[in-house]
Design brief:
Elements (H helix, E strand, L loop, with lengths): L1 E5 L2 E11 L2 H17 L7 E8 L4 E7 L3 E2 L5 H14 L13 E3 L2 E3 L8 H20 L3 H19 L12 E3 L8 E4 L5 E3 L5 E3 L18 H10 L9 H19 L4 H18 L7
Antiparallel strand pairs: 1-2, 2-4, 3-4, 5-9, 6-7, 8-11, 9-10
Helix pairs in contact: 2-5, 3-4, 3-6, 4-7, 6-7
């Protein structure tokens, strides 16, 4: 923390975060600035980024300091502020994606171009993570087979239907890595803040797929249910939980690619895909 003091009082304080690459630093600030400009009431103000030292090649990102507690957030408060973010955000192009690739931790997300279709945007994102996981951990024949069917049949059916038959979904700005460690509650005001984002414009339900995965504490269904009270489920509403299961596969593959010994989570991702293939993989791909 960097603090400016006068008479023993802190007038302004900032958080300094060290990052491994310039592109990561730039995208972190760009994403957090997008969040701040949309929802300044829940986002620490970005202050800048730059180079720390040439060797090792390190960069910094600085934002306002807010005293936070990292206890589990209040489900109602969280649902209200996140649904408000999703409702009020406006894609600058009216499309899905972002103007540059973003990073979930050190891992790149293939969202750095604008897409008319959410199904297309999500398919590219998921395919990129599958390839990253395979690069880090090697290929599994079962997972490869499941991903081929998911990309060719499950996504066009389960996600594509959101944009067919006179249906449409709004591109919403999402945090993109919205688990409990990236959420804090102001110890003074009780207000909720979000940080360490991996933003892009997406189907709003993509945000809460991470709240369904077993390795996060926010798997308690009260978080998903409170959100659904604030932001109506997309139609077909009866497929809401299956969509969240598919969106949660993104989180699981990201974890598998980035955490040594993440094989168990990779297995869970495979099992989720197999469940979805059984329900949605027998139909012909539709645009």
């Amino acid at each position: 923390m960097i603090a400016n003091k006068a008479g023993g009082m802190i007038l302004h304080a900032e958080v300094l975060k060290i990052l491994p690459e310039s592109v990561v630093s730039a995208t972190v600030e760009s994403g957090m600035l997008e969040l701040y400009n949309t929802a300044p009431n829940i986002t620490p103000k970005p202050c800048g980024w730059g180079r720390v030292a040439p060797e090792p090649c390190l960069f910094f990102y600085v934002c306002d300091f807010i005293p936070l507690t990292h206890t589990m957030p209040d489900p109602f408060k969280l649902a209200r502020v996140i649904s408000d973010l999703h409702k009020t955000s406006v894609s600058p192009t009216g499309k899905f994606g972002f103007h540059l690739p973003t990073y979930d931790g050190w891992q790149p997300q293939k969202v750095g171009q604008w897409e008319d279709s959410w199904a297309s945007c999500f398919a590219k994102l998921l395919k990129g993570l599958w390839e990253l996981d395979a690069k880090m951990n090697g290929h599994w024949a079962e997972l490869d087979a499941a991903m081929y069917i998911t990309l060719s049949k499950v996504i066009p059916r389960l996600i594509g239907i959101l944009e067919r038959d006179d249906r449409s979904i709004k591109p919403c700005l999402i945090h993109g890595d919205h688990w409990e460690s990236n959420i804090g509650t102001d110890v003074t005001t009780g207000n909720i803040y979000i940080f360490d984002a991996a933003v892009y414009y997406a189907h709003n339900e993509m945000e809460i797929g991470i709240w369904r995965v077993d390795h996060h504490k926010m798997k308690d269904e009260i978080y998903r249910n409170e959100y659904a009270k604030q932001f109506k489920k997309s139609e077909p509403a009866e497929e809401w939980d299956d969509r969240l299961k598919l969106y949660g596969v993104k989180t699981k593959l990201m974890y598998s690619a980035g955490v040594p010994g993440g094989t168990n989570i990779r297995r869970q991702a495979l099992e989720d895909l197999q469940d979805l293939i059984e329900k949605y993989g027998g139909e012909q791909s539709q645009g």
